[in-house]
């Protein structure tokens, strides 16, 4: 039954080149005087052992006795399946019949029909058929002759059997590409490693005390013997125990004699190997199952981790997009309540957003991008299709949304500063309006009543003349005031067009002024006409009074204007502007002496009136100037007012100068910080790019360390940025909108700072992905360094990316046969599509390494997993949950049981599960 | 020497990776014949529906290539289809099947003929 021989070589699969046993073709091919010709000592090719064999040849060979027993038992372990056996290895094989039967059982193949005759030539023919079969299995039996076997030559017979044992029981033992003998030894060493008192170094002395056999059994079937009770002082007991247990529970016949093992100075190596190989085959099923289980677990784990990364990406993308969606309308809201406080509140909110809300989101974005890269790298490495995020959550969608956010952000801050400036100017304009209105209203006080007065109907001629002249003066005054009313209207108009927040009060006040002004104009015209009508009746004028009145009115107007100018509010943004205000003020001061002269002249006229009156003894009404309401005293008061306000104006201008100098200091303070921070950030940016692309050859771990060091530095530098933000806030609050002392603005520093954060995060991720690639592909550090050197050499632009021309040159230098013709162009376009699937026109280092180390032909992973399940299932086309629970860790077993559908094939017992479909499902593969 | 292999200035610029092409493919089979390609991915795997293997002497041979990303099946968009749904639609498609695929410029096709034999060997730049 083929299952019993399952461990035997599947002939078609092994190629001769994989038969690395005995290290060389020496053993199979040598014709001349090798150890083979000298007898059974051909095997090892190790000179030392050959000598030992040869020496033992001369002595009474204990090995011959032992080999006879062992080989006989080994042969019988197969012949029993054909219900026969041998007793004497030389006598019972010499007819060739049982030899042919043995080979048929071992190989599960039919040999040519044996000849039934009992003649010597029949026997020779049969033995030859057996030998030919062995040779067909890839073993050259140089100088083993059928005659010697038929004649019962012991050494030759044993040699031939050993050849069969090697070919059919030992050859297929390969552990990590070692020779079969080394592989078997390594297997023994690994399995007995936990047993302190066992040290397997060979296949003779190491087995004398029997503990190694017991250890092998205990390691695989601990329930079969109590290892802790064993002692190396009882070799016979140990050997008997192991051999009994092996015979009873493992179906391995006794092949060694415990007495021989103990008594022989050195047990026979071939006998021990033959027996140990039976252990290997008994346990190798478990071994294969373990490997298969490991492979399944690894694939399941990779799948689960990829799913986790996909979940992480989706979650990050949703969160980030939702946040951007919430945030953008806030930044795009340009509504204003037209008050400075309202704008200040929003500017403060914006600062909080920049300082506290946005930075963690930037980190999330970096994490999102690195997660995406890691995931795609992992999928590429495990030969899966590229990850396709949910619609609307592609990397490009995130990037676009982010770009939109930053655009909104920039527009928002610009708008807000402009808005603040506008409202500030508006506030000042309103103050000017209030002042002018106040002055005008004070001037208007009583004017309407006076113009409506009927006094001229009951007065003397002189009084009438006076009234007429007074009216002329009043009209002059009215003309002078016209301009001021227009100014008030203009300011009101400006307040309207600039959207001042309290327009109702502005407009009603302006309307009141205009209405009164119009009425006054009408009244004045009416009164003038009435006075002129009365003129024919009355006349008489006092020249002196008239003179006074004529000079006093304009002077009074000048005084009012000067007072107004001196109280004027100013708003300046630079030292130059305040300087020009000071210049205007100086000009005004220069005109003071002329005004003072005018003042004296008017006062002098008044004095003349009094002197004249005094000289002529006049008093009372005659002293009152009938031509004007202005008195010298009033003018003197206004003059004093003007004189007093000049120093006050001086002082406020000087304060303004001081304030502008303070602003200048703030600009310097900011510039000093920015001029340090700017270059600092630029240097770190250069540092990051040089770590990843420098000609210096740094290991990935070293790159990782240095990048982390820069990240730490960044943490330390953060306080400088915060200091700058504080200074910048003072600057904005002082209404400073330019700074000629630094090429850096807060905005450029912020951008550089964030860019630095981002590029470190990106570089760290690249390094991590390279480590992942390196470790998962088993690339050594030296190979990685070579890749890095080569990549850097062609990275002429030092961007850590190769453009297509650089990349092509790189490949050609590495021996790629990219021809300079159409075919070559097509080949190269295909390569670019592999290494740059997003068509950025650039090739990163990890994509380069990935390409350089990718498999030449695609591995068929789902089939590997199906094969692994088949091993667990004992070669059946289905698997049961019991098997899965026995062979896999609990969570992986449940994962499989939940997902496997019932097996639908014929002869399936209840509960049979379909691992083939499941494996395909694991990869998302279907053959159509 | 690396310098030796740089393209001479007169050589045409390296070909830009050509854009992926969208191709309509029509397959035909006789009853009981399989289409002869392996499908991988799908919405439930959150990966592209992708052709991962094409069997020789099958209806798919010469029409589909490894790496083709399937966009529509018989005129219907397939982005939202799970792997099983897509497989079912294709299996049940009678004797003719229409696919729209996006083909990277032969990305996954075999590049062995231009690869250097053995592991990549580097000579130290400048040495």
From TrEMBL, chain A:
Cleavable signal peptide: 1-22
Domain EF-hand positions: 782-817, 823-858
Domain Calponin-homology (CH): 65-169, 178-284
Listed GO MF terms: actin binding; calcium ion binding
Presence of keyword Calcium: yes
Keyword annotations: Actin-binding, Calcium, Coiled coil, Metal-binding, Repeat, Signal
Name listed for the protein in its UniProt record: Alpha-actinin
From TrEMBL, chain B:
Pfam families from the UniProt entry: PDZ
Keyword Cytoplasm: yes
Ranges of Pro residues composition bias in the record: 9-18
GO function term, MF aspect, one: actin binding
SMART domains in the record: PDZ
Residue span(s) of domain PDZ: 24-105
Protein location: Cytoplasm
Keyword annotations of the record: Cytoplasm, LIM domain, Metal-binding, Zinc
The keyword DNA-binding is assigned to this record: no
InterPro entries: PDZ, PDZ-LIM_domain, PDZ_sf
Gene3D superfamilies noted in UniProt: 2.30.42.10
CC annotations in GO: adherens junction; filamentous actin; stress fiber; Z disc
Coiled-coil residue spans: none
GO biological process, one term: muscle structure development
Coarse class of the protein's main subcellular location: cytoplasm
Region (Disordered): 1-20
Full protein name: PDZ domain-containing protein
């Amino acid at each position: 039954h083929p299952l019993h021989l399952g461990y035997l070589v599947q002939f078609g699969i092994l190629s001769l080149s994989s038969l690395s046993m005995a290290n060389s073709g020496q053993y199979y091919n040598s014709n001349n005087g090798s150890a083979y010709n000298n007898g059974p000592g051909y095997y090892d090719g190790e000179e030392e052992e050959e000598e030992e064999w040869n020496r033992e040849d001369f002595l009474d060979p204990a090995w011959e006795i032992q080999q006879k027993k062992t080989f006989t038992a080994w042969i019988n372990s197969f012949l029993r399946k054909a219900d026969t056996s041998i007793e004497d290895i030389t006598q019972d094989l010499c007819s060739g019949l049982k030899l042919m039967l043995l080979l048929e059982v071992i190989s599960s193949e039919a040999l040519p029909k044996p000849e039934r005759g009992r003649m010597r030539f029949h026997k020779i023919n049969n033995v030859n058929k057996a030998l030919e079969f062995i040779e067909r299995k890839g073993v050259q039996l140089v100088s083993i002759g059928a005659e010697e076997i038929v004649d019962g030559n012991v050494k030759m017979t044993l040699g031939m059997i050993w050849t069969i044992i090697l070919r059919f029981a030992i050859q297929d033992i390969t552990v990590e590409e070692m020779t079969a003998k080394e592989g078997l030894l390594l297997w023994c060493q690994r399995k007995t490693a936990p047993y302190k008192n066992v040290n397997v170094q060979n296949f003779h002395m190491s087995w004398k005390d029997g503990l190694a056999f017991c250890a092998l059994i205990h390691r695989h079937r601990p329930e079969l013997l109590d290892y802790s009770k064993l002692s190396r002082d009882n070799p016979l007991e140990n050997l008997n125990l192991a051999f009994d247990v092996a015979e009873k529970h493992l179906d391995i016949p006794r092949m060694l004699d415990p007495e021989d093992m103990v008594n022989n100075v050195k047990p026979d190596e071939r006998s021990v190997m033959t027996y140990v190989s039976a252990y290997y085959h008994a346990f190798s099923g478990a071994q294969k199952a373990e490997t298969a289980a490991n492979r399944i677990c690894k694939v399941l784990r990779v799948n689960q981790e990829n799913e986790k990364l996909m979940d992480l990406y989706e979650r990050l993308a949703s969160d980030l997009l939702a946040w951007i969606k919430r945030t953008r309308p806030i930044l795009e809201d340009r509504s204003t309540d037209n008050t400075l406080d309202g704008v200040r509140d929003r500017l403060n909110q914006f600062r909080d957003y920049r300082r506290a809300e946005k930075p963690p989101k930037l980190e999330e974005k970096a994490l999102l991008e690195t997660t995406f890269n890691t995931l795609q790298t992992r999928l590429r490495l495990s030969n899966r299709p590229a990850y396709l995020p949910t619609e609307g959550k592609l990397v490009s969608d995130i990037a676009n949304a982010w770009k939109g956010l930053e655009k909104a952000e920039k527009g928002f801050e610009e708008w807000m500063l402009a808005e603040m400036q506008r409202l500030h100017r508006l506030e000042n304009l309103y103050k000017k309006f209030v002042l002018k209105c106040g002055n005008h209203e004070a001037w208007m006080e009583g004017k309407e009543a006076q113009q409506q007065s009927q006094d001229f109907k009951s007065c003397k001629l002189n009084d009438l003349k006076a009234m007429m002249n007074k009216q002329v003066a009043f009209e002059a005054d009215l003309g002078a005031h016209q301009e001021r009313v227009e100014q008030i209207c203009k300011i009101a108009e400006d307040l309207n067009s600039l959207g001042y927040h309290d327009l109702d009060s502005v407009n009603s006040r302006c309307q009141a002024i205009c209405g009164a002004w119009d009425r006054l104009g009408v009244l004045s015209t009416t009164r003038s006409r009435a006075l002129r009508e009365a003129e024919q009746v009355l006349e008489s004028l006092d020249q002196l009074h008239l003179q006074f009145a004529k000079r006093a009115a304009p002077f009074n107007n000048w005084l009012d204007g000067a007072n107004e100018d001196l109280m004027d509010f100013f708003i300046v943004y630079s030292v130059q502007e305040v300087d020009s205000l000071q210049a205007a003020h100086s000009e005004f001061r220069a005109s003071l002496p002329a005004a003072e002269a005018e003042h004296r002249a008017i006062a002098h006229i008044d004095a003349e009136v009094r002197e004249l009156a005094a000289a002529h003894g006049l008093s009372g009404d005659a002293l009152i100037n009938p031509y004007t309401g202005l008195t010298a005293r009033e003018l003197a008061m206004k003059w004093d007012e003007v004189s007093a306000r000049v120093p006050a104006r001086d002082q406020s201008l000087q304060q303004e100068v001081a304030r502008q100098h303070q602003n200048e200091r703030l600009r310097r303070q900011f510039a000093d910080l920015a001029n340090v921070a700017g270059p600092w950030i630029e240097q770190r940016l250069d540092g990051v790019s040089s770590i990843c692309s420098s000609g210096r050859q740094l290991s990935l771990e070293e790159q990782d360390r240095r990048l982390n060091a820069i990240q730490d530095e960044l943490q330390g530098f953060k306080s400088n940025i915060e200091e700058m933000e504080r200074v910048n806030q003072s600057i904005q609050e002082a209404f400073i909108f330019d700074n000629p002392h630094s090429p850096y603005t807060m905005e450029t520093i912020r951008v550089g700072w964030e860019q630095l954060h981002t590029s470190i995060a990106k570089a760290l991720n690249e390094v991590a992905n390279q480590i992942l690639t390196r470790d998962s592909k088993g690339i050594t550090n030296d190979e990685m360094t070579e890749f890095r050197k080569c990549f850097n050499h062609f990275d002429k632009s030092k961007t850590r990316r190769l453009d297509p021309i650089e990349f092509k040159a790189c490949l050609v230098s590495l021996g790629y046969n990219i021809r300079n013709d159409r075919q070559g162009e097509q080949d190269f376009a295909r390569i670019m599509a592999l290494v740059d699937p997003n068509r950025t026109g650039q090739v990163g280092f990890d994509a380069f390494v990935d390409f350089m180390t990718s498999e030449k032909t695609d591995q068929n992973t789902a089939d590997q997993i199906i094969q692994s399940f088949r091993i667990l299932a004992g070669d059946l086309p289905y698997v049961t949950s019991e098997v899965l629970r026995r062979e896999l860790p609990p969570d992986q077993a449940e994962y499989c049981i939940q997902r496997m559908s019932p097996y639908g094939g014929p002869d399936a017992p209840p509960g049979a599960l379909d691992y083939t479909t499941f494996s395909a499902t694991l990869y998302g593969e279907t053959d159509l | 020497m690396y310098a030796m292999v740089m393209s001479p200035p007169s050589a045409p610029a390296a070909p830009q990776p050509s854009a992926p092409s969208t191709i309509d493919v029509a397959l035909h089979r006789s009853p009981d014949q399989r289409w002869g390609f392996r499908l991988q991915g799908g919405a439930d795997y959150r990966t592209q529906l992708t052709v991962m293997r094409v069997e020789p002497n099958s209806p798919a041979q010469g029409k589909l290539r490894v790496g083709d990303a399937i966009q529509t099946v018989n005129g219907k968009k397939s982005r939202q289809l799970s792997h099983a749904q897509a497989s079912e639609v294709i299996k049940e498609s009678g004797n003719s099947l229409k696919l729209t695929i996006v083909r990277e410029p032969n990305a996954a096709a075999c590049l062995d003929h231009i690869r250097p034999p053995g592991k990549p060997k580097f000579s130290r730049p400048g040495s």
